[in-house]
Amino acid sequence: MTTSPAPGLLVEGRVVHKTSNALKITFNDGPGDPIAVGVQGAGDGRGAKAAILFGFKNGGTGRHVLTYADGTALEVQSRSAQPTLLTRGGTEFVSVERGDTAVARDTAGRTVATFTADPDEAKTPDIFRVQISDGRGDALAELTVIRRVAGWSLWRTANAINDMTIWWDRAGEPLKTPLLGTRLALTRPATAAERDVLLGACVDITLGLRPYTAAMN
Q: Most buried of 46, 60, 107, 217 (most Cβ within 10 A)?
């Protein structure tokens, strides 16, 4: 079921290339400093980083690192044909099994979040749209993955545009990246674990190029 976001609970992630050629996604929830920044392959070895530097790896599998404004870091290990792993300090705490839908579970096997294709608008030339539910099965967020520049200007309804967020609704110039970014519209404040899963999923999708629904394949 589609629900409108709670006021102020919109998080936008924009993807660009760093000077090292690595993809970078910067998350903002309003004007000011970013709340987190994810970098492609920041946790990989020299060989993988060299492939990125010379332009041989424009996104894909690897150990991507998401660093929050407080300096804490989350590693997102995007893997081929295997679950994505989220770790802190080398310790795994969540895995994401991807298929026609995606399910994030903690190490005890409890569901933290489930990602399903939007029933009405799973895929267009400009976006992918995903509905996210929490461990109880209640609506947690709507995720829009931006495929082309026009996707930045697409909103579910006029009610989804809050006055405080109009500042970021500028299309800008096309970027030479596989995906341009993400927009998360939360229905309520997320817990710390849910925040890690939501932003980790955005990193996994845009930098790791991992599909979370059948529509993304």
A: 60
pTM reported for the whole predicted model? 0.86
With beta carbons less than 8 A apart as the criterion, state whether 29 and 193 touch.
Answer: no
The answer to whether residues 24 and 39 touch, using CB atoms and an 8 Å cutoff, is yes
pLDDT tens, position by position, 108-155 = 999 999 999 999 999 999 999 999 999 999 999 999 999 999 999 887
For residue 115, the number of C-alpha atoms closer than 13 Å in the C-beta half-sphere is 34
What tokens appear for 21 in the block?
A: 């050629």
Helices (H), strands (E): how many in the chain? 2, 12
What is the average pLDDT across 153-161?
Answer: 60
pLDDT band at 12 (very low <50, low <70, confident <90, very high): very high
CB 20 within 8 A of CB 53: yes
Q: Name the β-bridge partners of 115.
A: 102, 132
Cα separation of 57 and 66, whole Å? 19
Question: Which is nearest to 86 in space by CA: 199, 184, 207, 186?
Answer: 199
CA distance 99 to 172: 33
Burial of 205 (0-12, 13-18, 19+ CB in 10 A): buried
> How sure is the predictor about 54, in pLDDT bands with cuts at 50, 70 and 90?
very low
Alpha-carbon dihedral sign for residues 57, 178, 76, 33: positive
